[in-house]
Amino acid sequence: MAEAGRPLRVALLSYRSKPHCGGQGVYLRHLSRELVDLGHTVEVLSGQPYPELDREEITLTKVPSLDLYRDEDPFRNPALHEFRDWIDVLEYAHMRTGGFPEPLTFSLRVLRELRRRRGEFDVAHDNQVLGLGNLGIRRLGLPLVTSIHHPISVDRRIDIEAARGFRQKLGKVRWYGFVSMQSQVARRIGPVLTVSESSKVDIVKDFKVDPRDIEILPLGVDTRIFHPRGDRTPGRIVAMASADAPIKGVDVLLRAVAKVATERDVHVIVVSRPRKDGPTEQLVRELALGDRVRFVSGIGDEELGELLATAEIAVVPSRYEGFSLPAVEHMASGTPLVASRAGALPEVVGEAGALVRPGDVEELAATLRRLHDDPAERARLSEAGLARVQQRFAWPAVARATVEHYRAAIEQQRYRRLAAGGS
Length: 423
What we know:
Number of helices: 16
Number of domains: 2
Structural class: alpha/beta
CATH architecture of the largest domain: 3-Layer(aba) Sandwich
Order of helices and strands: EHEEHHEHEHHHEHEEHEHEHEHEHEHHH
Radius of gyration: 22 Å
């Protein structure tokens, strides 16, 4: 066991860790880097897609799934030789019956790995897996800290409301079946870290977690990547959001841009890859946006930082956010921000952005027009966003606070062992 002040051996667990789209992979990347810079030993255990890691000292242990949802071949049928064990069979059967198995099956695989290697770690940190296998990690005697960025029950509600027809709604209910498992695990797992007061409220309400078990620890931003860089492209609007996920509100943004583009020379770049002939591509055709919209994906950090810094306006149009790293990255880039008054966004943005009603196309369009026409207001929001980032959001501070939670979990585990008569 690590003594107070000694470097810790940390196992970071994440069932999928997409590097540039989705908060889980971004969180994993930055936290692991800062933990190593503080002198701790970090091993990331992840399923596909695997993360990008910033330090050679960080070990990546791949815990492969059947990769049934890869971008180029989603819901694929693996060849027989790809099946390795009963967990693979469970994963495939779950997918074929309409469910999403990865949190469960990753937790079972990682439990097997940690059982074999229990003595190699001082603490495990679960990055919103919340699978049944996680309960076994605690039974190994390995202290466990869990991050819940926001409860996926919120995504479930919004997706089901957006579904068309009974059959599609039924499919969404089945897909999100894993949420009830996550709720059960969250209530039994021990200390939980979340990123905002808004997320804490939702975790207590939806997952019924004891509020005394939840600590708030905001996320940080890498200002080496996200910072102002000079000239901006006139009329450019940028958003980073999963294009086809209703919760992210890209449909609202596109409809608002279509209205503004009839009167002003604006265009939007969305950092995402929409599904071919999916709802977003269909909406682009319906709105006849043509070259007024562009989607980009697979770009590196430097290119992403440059893109964000070229925009005149940034938008986070989500119907809900438990935190929103993109909002902080836009502010760090000095880009005037428009965000929905939804979830944690008012808490994150404060007075440093223009807030609009979630899902309100007309209000978003009016705000885009106003900012497009008012350079002074854009400059004011830019300065306010930069100041807020410098005051509140820094990864080194996040890592130091996280380590304190690790040490508390280790001490709690020691007391439990002593109370049970152990050494």
